[in-house]
Design brief:
The protein is α/β, with parallel strands linked by helices. It is built from eight helices and eleven strands.
Length: 218
């Protein structure tokens, strides 16, 4: 899942981003509404965590612009306002969910994951193929009942391949979903990560390279 965190309190924004990355999400950060709109015009996000009170361009304006664009990106709006009228007005702008500050990080993560599931077709709670069993909630992977230890990026890449259900996933798609905007696409990071996942999954090789197209788990 790829997430954009839009929050003008930089310590809070960076803390949220770090926590979500530990959950194997790719996260970009914007500290004002204008920067958020610039990133939304370039990148494809599953969920935007959007503070309502932003400098330069307000969170309300960002929300309305995103809704009018017709993108599938889901919006989780944050605010310090606790009044019901404020929550209602935020949802009326097109936000998909609303969370008041202060909040528990576990709840924020759960809400983001729930919104992310609404972007894609419903996936089974456990992903399985070619003897591989990946549990997104317990963050565990086994192959033929043997545990497989993966890094966060390796876990994210394997999740994308399993979600494709045998279809081909391009390197560009993997970059879009598993890495943030700071990755250099010319470094071969996708190829290296695929190599590490293959090695850890063991024989026979589970991930097939489709020349000129990408990768798949047949």
């Amino acid at each position: 899942m790829r997430v954009l965190v839009v929050e003008d309190e930089q310590l809070l924004a960076d803390s949220i981003a770090d926590g979500l990355r530990r959950e194997a999400m790719a996260v970009d950060v914007a500290y004002d509404g204008n920067a958020a709109l610039e990133r939304l015009a370039i990148n494809d996000y599953d969920v935007v965590v959007l503070d309502r009170d932003l400098p330069v361009v307000s969170g309300d304006e960002v929300c309305m612009t995103l809704v009018e664009s017709g993108l599938d990106t889901r919006i989780l709006m944050l605010t310090a306002a606790t009044a019901v009228a404020q929550r209602v007005s935020g949802l009326s702008l097109g936000a998909d969910d609303y969370l008041t500050k202060p909040f528990a990080f576990a709840e924020l993560t759960a809400r983001i994951q729930a919104l992310g599931r609404r972007v894609r077709p419903a996936a089974p709670p456990v992903l399985q193929r070619a003897g591989i069993r990946l549990d997104p909630h317990r963050r565990t992977v086994t192959r033929n009942d043997h545990p497989v230890g993966l890094s966060r990026k390796e876990f994210a890449v394997l999740s994308e391949l399993l979600l494709a259900e045998g279809g081909v996933v391009s390197a560009e798609q993997l970059l879009e979903k598993a890495w943030d905007e700071h990755v250099n696409p010319l470094t071969g990071v996708v190829r290296f990560t695929i190599m590490m996942v293959r090695r850890k999954l063991g024989e026979p090789t589970a991930i097939e390279t489709v020349p000129g197209a990408g990768y798949r788990i047949a």
